[in-house]
Specification:
The protein has helices spanning 2-40, 46-82, 85-91, 97-139, 141-144, 253-265, 271-284, 286-300, 306-332, 338-361; strands spanning 150-151, 158-165, 168-176, 184-195, 202-214, 222-234. A six-stranded antiparallel β-sheet has the order 1-2-3-4-5-6, with no helix packed on it. It folds into two domains: 2-138 and 246-361, no CATH class; 154-235, no CATH class. The protein is built from ten helices and six strands.
Length: 363
C-alpha cells in the first residue's frame, strides 16, 4: 500500500506543478498586458513593471493553488483510468477509501501553506504593490493618470486631459471649484510634470493657454489671462510611498485580531475586520475542499465522461468563489454572521464531497 500511495502522489505532483505554473502564468500575462501601456506609452521602466508583477504573484496563488489542486486530480485520475490502472487497483482488492486519506493529507499540508501565504506573504506583497504604484506616480505622474477621465488626485483641482503621450499631456483642462463663486478654469494646449524644487508635491508646467484670475473690482468674478508658460504647484495626498497606510487585507491575522479588540473596546463596529479575519482562514482551506472534489471526480471518471467532468470542474470554481462573494455581501447586510458567511462554502463543499466519497468507498 505504501508503494501505491507513493505512486499516486507522484502521479499527481506533475500535473499539479504544471497547472500551478500555467494558471499563474495566464494571470500574470493578463497583468503584463494591463501594465504594458505604462512601459510603451508612459515611459515607466521595465524594472518597475517587473516589481509590480512580482508583487502580484502571492495574491494570485490564493486562486491558482486551489484550482491547480482540482485540475491536477482530474488529469491524474484521467490518465490512470485511460491506462486501466484504476481497474487494476480495484481488482487487487484495494478499496477506493484507502486512496482518499493520502490525498486529504496533502490537502491539509497545502492548506497550511496557503494560510502562511494569506497571513504573511500576500498582505506584505499587496502593500508593497500599492507603494510601488505610488512611487511610480511620484516619479512619473503621467503613468498614474488616465486620459479621458476626471482626475481628482490633486485637490482642490479637478483635471481633465484629452490625450497623454509619453510624459506630455495634451489639451489640458483644470478646474478649481470655489465655495462662494464660479469655478476657476485653466486651459492649456499641453503640459508636463516636474518635481517641485522643495521636494513636496509636483509641479505642472503648462504651455500656450489661458486661465481665470480674480477680478479685484468685482469679488467672485474672474477675467481671462493668456500665457505662453505657466507653472502651478500640485499637492498629492502622500509624497512618501512608505507612509501609505494598510488596508484590511494587508493586515496579518494577529494584527486583525488586535485591531478588532481595540475598536471593540471603543464601541466601534468591527464587522469588516471580522469578515477579513475569517476570510483569511477560510480561503486557506480551499485546497483541501478542492482536492476532495477532485477525488470525487477522479474516482468517478470514465473515458467517455471527460468533457462532462471538466464542466463540473468549472462549475465548482464558479460556485465556490461566487458563493464567497455572495456570502460576504449577505454578512455586510446583517443576514448572516461573519464566521458562518466566510466558512459556508467550505462547509457545504466538504459536506457534499464527503457524502460522495462515502458512497464511492462503499461500492
Amino acid at each position: 500500500m505504501k508503494i501505491l500511495r507513493t505512486y499516486l502522489l507522484r502521479e499527481h505532483l506533475g500535473p499539479f506543478v504544471v497547472c500551478l505554473f500555467g494558471l499563474t502564468a495566464v494571470l500574470l500575462l493578463g497583468n503584463v498586458l494591463k501594465f504594458a501601456e505604462l512601459v510603451i506609452a508612459k515611459g515607466v521602466s521595465a524594472v518597475d513593471l517587473l516589481r509590480l508583477l512580482i508583487y502580484r504573484v502571492p495574491d494570485m496563488l490564493s486562486f491558482t493553488i486551489p484550482m491547480a489542486c482540482l485540475i491536477a486530480m482530474v488529469l491524474a485520475f484521467g490518465r490512470l483510468s485511460a491506462d486501466y490502472e484504476m481497474i487494476a487497483v480495484r481488482a487487487s482488492g484495494v478499496s477506493p477509501a484507502r486512496l482518499i486519506w493520502p490525498m486529504a493529507a496533502v490537502g491539509l499540508l497545502l492548506s497550511a501553506f496557503m494560510f502562511v501565504i494569506n497571513d504573511r506573504v500576500a498582505p506584505a506583497s499587496h502593500l508593497a504593490f500599492r507603494r510601488q504604484l505610488k512611487a511610480i506616480g511620484i516619479k512619473q505622474p503621467t503613468a498614474y493618470l488616465e486620459a479621458g477621465t476626471f482626475i481628482k488626485d490633486f485637490a482642490p483641482y479637478v483635471m481633465f486631459v484629452y490625450q497623454i503621450r509619453g510624459r506630455t499631456l495634451h489639451q489640458v483642462r483644470i478646474y478649481e471649484p470655489q465655495p462662494n463663486g464660479p469655478t476657476r478654469t485653466i486651459i492649456a494646449e499641453r503640459g508636463e510634470f516636474e518635481r517641485s524644487p522643495g521636494g513636496r508635491g509636483v509641479q505642472l508646467r503648462l504651455y500656450r493657454g489661458a486661465m481665470d484670475e480674480w477680478d479685484p473690482t468685482r469679488p467672485g468674478s474672474f477675467y481671462k489671462v493668456a500665457f505662453s508658460t505657466y507653472a502651478m504647484q500640485l499637492q498629492t495626498d502622500i509624497d512618501d510611498p512608505q507612509r501609505i497606510g494598510k488596508k484590511l487585507k494587508e493586515f496579518t491575522f494577529r494584527e486583525l485580531a488586535e485591531e478588532r479588540a481595540r475598536l471593540a473596546a471603543q464601541g466601534i463596529e468591527t464587522l469588516p475586520i471580522s469578515l477579513e479575519l475569517h476570510r483569511k482562514v477560510a480561503v486557506s482551506f480551499a485546497p483541501l475542499v478542492f482536492i476532495l472534489f477532485g477525488l470525487v471526480f477522479g474516482l468517478r471518471l470514465h473515458q467517455h465522461e471527460r468533457l462532462q467532468i471538466y464542466l463540473w470542474v468549472l462549475a465548482v470554481f464558479l460556485v465556490y468563489y461566487l458563493g464567497m462573494i455572495g456570502m460576504h455581501a449577505a454578512a455586510i447586510r446583517g443576514w448572516v454572521g461573519p464566521g458562518l458567511a466566510m466558512w459556508m462554502m467550505n462547509l457545504a463543499g466538504a459536506l457534499g464531497a464527503g457524502l460522495a466519497l462515502t458512497r464511492i468507498a462503499r461500492e
